[in-house]
Amino acid sequence: MAKTTLTISSKNYSSWSLRGWLLAKFSGLEFEEVTTAPDDASARAEILLLSSSILVPCLRHDGATIWDTLAIAEYLNEVMPDAGLLPADRIRRAHCRSICGEIHSGFTTLRASLPVNLKGHFPGFKIWSRAQADIDRVCTIWRECLAESGGPFLFGERTMADAMYAPVVTRLMTYDVKLEPTLAAYAKTIMAMPEMQEWIEAAKAEPADIEELEVEY
Asked: Where does the record place the GST N-terminal domain (predicted)?
Protein backbone atom coordinates (compact mmCIF):
# COMPACT_ATOMS: atom_id res chain seq x y z
CA MET A 1 0.00 0.00 0.00
CA ALA A 2 1.26 3.49 -0.85
CA LYS A 3 2.08 5.67 2.11
CA THR A 4 -0.54 8.11 3.37
CA THR A 5 0.40 11.77 2.90
CA LEU A 6 -1.13 15.11 3.77
CA THR A 7 0.06 18.06 1.71
CA ILE A 8 -0.06 21.34 3.61
CA SER A 9 1.30 24.86 3.24
CA SER A 10 2.49 27.39 5.84
CA LYS A 11 1.80 26.46 9.44
CA ASN A 12 1.97 30.08 10.48
CA TYR A 13 -0.54 31.45 7.99
CA SER A 14 -2.67 28.65 6.57
CA SER A 15 -6.07 28.13 8.17
CA TRP A 16 -7.08 25.39 5.74
CA SER A 17 -3.88 23.44 6.26
CA LEU A 18 -4.44 23.59 10.01
CA ARG A 19 -7.97 22.26 9.60
CA GLY A 20 -6.90 19.34 7.42
CA TRP A 21 -3.98 18.50 9.69
CA LEU A 22 -6.12 18.57 12.85
CA LEU A 23 -8.76 16.40 11.21
CA ALA A 24 -6.14 13.82 10.31
CA LYS A 25 -4.67 13.96 13.81
CA PHE A 26 -8.10 13.67 15.45
CA SER A 27 -8.88 10.64 13.29
CA GLY A 28 -5.80 8.74 14.39
CA LEU A 29 -4.80 8.03 10.80
CA GLU A 30 -1.03 7.81 10.45
CA PHE A 31 0.28 10.09 7.72
CA GLU A 32 3.39 11.79 6.43
CA GLU A 33 3.42 15.55 5.98
CA VAL A 34 4.34 17.04 2.63
CA THR A 35 4.89 20.80 2.86
CA THR A 36 4.68 23.12 -0.11
CA ALA A 37 7.10 26.03 -0.19
CA PRO A 38 5.68 29.46 0.81
CA ASP A 39 6.45 30.80 -2.66
CA ASP A 40 4.58 27.97 -4.38
CA ALA A 41 1.77 29.52 -6.44
CA SER A 42 -0.99 27.20 -5.22
CA ALA A 43 0.10 27.56 -1.60
CA ARG A 44 0.08 31.36 -1.79
CA ALA A 45 -3.32 31.33 -3.49
CA GLU A 46 -4.69 29.27 -0.64
CA ILE A 47 -3.14 31.38 2.10
CA LEU A 48 -4.00 34.74 0.53
CA LEU A 49 -7.57 33.70 -0.41
CA LEU A 50 -6.85 34.36 -4.08
CA SER A 51 -8.31 31.17 -5.49
CA SER A 52 -11.77 29.65 -5.29
CA SER A 53 -10.28 26.27 -6.13
CA ILE A 54 -8.17 25.29 -3.15
CA LEU A 55 -5.99 22.20 -3.59
CA VAL A 56 -4.25 22.40 -0.21
CA PRO A 57 -4.56 20.57 2.13
CA CYS A 58 -4.62 17.35 0.15
CA LEU A 59 -4.91 13.89 1.69
CA ARG A 60 -3.71 10.86 -0.24
CA HIS A 61 -4.73 7.54 1.29
CA ASP A 62 -5.29 4.05 -0.07
CA GLY A 63 -5.73 5.19 -3.68
CA ALA A 64 -7.92 8.19 -2.81
CA THR A 65 -6.94 11.84 -3.28
CA ILE A 66 -9.05 14.31 -1.30
CA TRP A 67 -8.36 18.05 -1.33
CA ASP A 68 -11.43 19.81 0.03
CA THR A 69 -11.37 20.16 3.82
CA LEU A 70 -14.97 19.08 4.36
CA ALA A 71 -14.42 16.17 1.99
CA ILE A 72 -11.33 15.23 4.02
CA ALA A 73 -13.42 15.33 7.20
CA GLU A 74 -16.16 13.13 5.75
CA TYR A 75 -13.62 10.71 4.26
CA LEU A 76 -11.79 10.37 7.56
CA ASN A 77 -15.11 9.78 9.31
CA GLU A 78 -15.72 6.89 6.92
CA VAL A 79 -12.29 5.25 7.18
CA MET A 80 -11.80 5.93 10.91
CA PRO A 81 -15.38 5.64 12.27
CA ASP A 82 -14.32 5.08 15.87
CA ALA A 83 -12.56 8.45 16.04
CA GLY A 84 -15.83 10.30 16.66
CA LEU A 85 -15.30 13.05 14.10
CA LEU A 86 -19.08 13.35 13.95
CA PRO A 87 -21.45 13.02 16.93
CA ALA A 88 -23.25 9.71 17.32
CA ASP A 89 -26.69 11.29 17.60
CA ARG A 90 -28.43 12.02 14.28
CA ILE A 91 -29.67 15.50 15.26
CA ARG A 92 -26.35 16.59 16.71
CA ARG A 93 -24.57 15.10 13.70
CA ALA A 94 -26.69 17.26 11.40
CA HIS A 95 -25.96 20.30 13.57
CA CYS A 96 -22.23 19.57 13.45
CA ARG A 97 -22.28 19.28 9.67
CA SER A 98 -24.22 22.54 9.41
CA ILE A 99 -21.79 24.64 11.43
CA CYS A 100 -18.84 23.04 9.65
CA GLY A 101 -20.41 23.95 6.32
CA GLU A 102 -20.99 27.50 7.53
CA ILE A 103 -17.35 28.10 8.45
CA HIS A 104 -16.22 26.33 5.30
CA SER A 105 -18.13 28.64 2.95
CA GLY A 106 -18.73 31.84 4.91
CA PHE A 107 -17.12 34.45 7.14
CA THR A 108 -15.21 35.98 4.24
CA THR A 109 -14.75 39.37 5.91
CA LEU A 110 -13.34 37.75 9.04
CA ARG A 111 -10.89 35.77 6.90
CA ALA A 112 -9.74 38.83 4.99
CA SER A 113 -9.63 41.26 7.92
CA LEU A 114 -8.04 39.00 10.53
CA PRO A 115 -5.69 36.67 8.63
CA VAL A 116 -4.18 33.75 10.51
CA ASN A 117 -0.75 34.67 11.87
CA LEU A 118 0.34 32.46 14.74
CA LYS A 119 3.60 34.34 15.28
CA GLY A 120 1.81 37.68 15.47
CA HIS A 121 0.03 39.45 18.31
CA PHE A 122 -1.77 42.73 17.73
CA PRO A 123 -3.48 44.09 20.87
CA GLY A 124 -5.87 46.94 20.23
CA PHE A 125 -6.43 45.84 16.64
CA LYS A 126 -9.23 47.79 14.93
CA ILE A 127 -12.08 45.46 13.97
CA TRP A 128 -14.47 46.87 11.40
CA SER A 129 -18.21 46.34 11.65
CA ARG A 130 -18.50 43.65 8.97
CA ALA A 131 -15.74 41.59 10.56
CA GLN A 132 -17.38 42.11 13.94
CA ALA A 133 -20.63 40.73 12.53
CA ASP A 134 -18.75 37.57 11.52
CA ILE A 135 -17.19 37.33 14.99
CA ASP A 136 -20.61 37.77 16.59
CA ARG A 137 -21.99 34.92 14.50
CA VAL A 138 -19.10 32.65 15.46
CA CYS A 139 -19.71 33.48 19.11
CA THR A 140 -23.39 32.64 18.73
CA ILE A 141 -22.52 29.26 17.20
CA TRP A 142 -20.09 28.46 19.99
CA ARG A 143 -22.46 29.69 22.70
CA GLU A 144 -25.35 27.55 21.46
CA CYS A 145 -23.20 24.44 21.01
CA LEU A 146 -21.57 24.73 24.43
CA ALA A 147 -24.89 25.42 26.15
CA GLU A 148 -26.32 22.23 24.68
CA SER A 149 -23.27 19.99 25.10
CA GLY A 150 -21.85 21.34 28.34
CA GLY A 151 -18.39 21.48 26.75
CA PRO A 152 -15.48 21.39 26.90
CA PHE A 153 -15.67 20.99 23.11
CA LEU A 154 -18.50 22.20 20.89
CA PHE A 155 -20.28 18.85 20.98
CA GLY A 156 -18.91 17.69 24.31
CA GLU A 157 -16.33 15.35 22.86
CA ARG A 158 -13.91 16.51 20.19
CA THR A 159 -15.36 16.45 16.67
CA MET A 160 -14.64 17.81 13.21
CA ALA A 161 -16.30 21.08 14.29
CA ASP A 162 -13.45 21.84 16.67
CA ALA A 163 -10.92 21.31 13.89
CA MET A 164 -12.92 23.55 11.56
CA TYR A 165 -13.17 26.39 14.10
CA ALA A 166 -9.64 26.09 15.53
CA PRO A 167 -8.19 28.67 13.07
CA VAL A 168 -10.87 31.12 14.20
CA VAL A 169 -9.69 30.64 17.77
CA THR A 170 -6.15 31.51 16.69
CA ARG A 171 -7.41 34.62 14.89
CA LEU A 172 -9.18 35.84 18.02
CA MET A 173 -6.03 35.26 20.06
CA THR A 174 -3.75 36.97 17.52
CA TYR A 175 -5.92 40.09 17.29
CA ASP A 176 -6.74 40.21 21.01
CA VAL A 177 -10.50 39.82 20.59
CA LYS A 178 -12.18 39.73 24.00
CA LEU A 179 -14.55 36.83 24.70
CA GLU A 180 -17.10 36.16 27.40
CA PRO A 181 -15.90 33.62 30.02
CA THR A 182 -17.58 30.52 28.54
CA LEU A 183 -16.22 31.21 25.07
CA ALA A 184 -12.80 32.18 26.42
CA ALA A 185 -12.68 28.83 28.22
CA TYR A 186 -13.48 27.05 24.96
CA ALA A 187 -10.75 28.99 23.14
CA LYS A 188 -8.30 28.06 25.90
CA THR A 189 -9.29 24.39 25.55
CA ILE A 190 -8.57 24.48 21.82
CA MET A 191 -5.25 26.25 22.21
CA ALA A 192 -4.16 23.79 24.92
CA MET A 193 -4.72 20.68 22.81
CA PRO A 194 -1.41 18.81 22.28
CA GLU A 195 -2.03 18.88 18.53
CA MET A 196 -2.43 22.66 18.56
CA GLN A 197 0.68 23.09 20.65
CA GLU A 198 2.63 20.93 18.20
CA TRP A 199 1.35 22.96 15.23
CA ILE A 200 2.08 26.31 16.92
CA GLU A 201 5.63 25.33 17.80
CA ALA A 202 6.26 24.36 14.19
CA ALA A 203 4.65 27.60 12.99
CA LYS A 204 6.95 29.68 15.18
CA ALA A 205 9.95 27.87 13.69
CA GLU A 206 9.03 28.76 10.10
CA PRO A 207 11.63 31.14 8.67
CA ALA A 208 9.58 32.75 5.90
CA ASP A 209 7.15 35.64 6.30
CA ILE A 210 4.49 36.63 3.81
CA GLU A 211 4.43 40.43 3.71
CA GLU A 212 0.81 40.65 2.57
CA LEU A 213 -0.29 39.04 5.84
CA GLU A 214 1.84 41.10 8.20
CA VAL A 215 -0.09 43.88 9.95
CA GLU A 216 1.71 47.22 10.04
CA TYR A 217 1.04 50.23 12.26
From this structure: 4-84
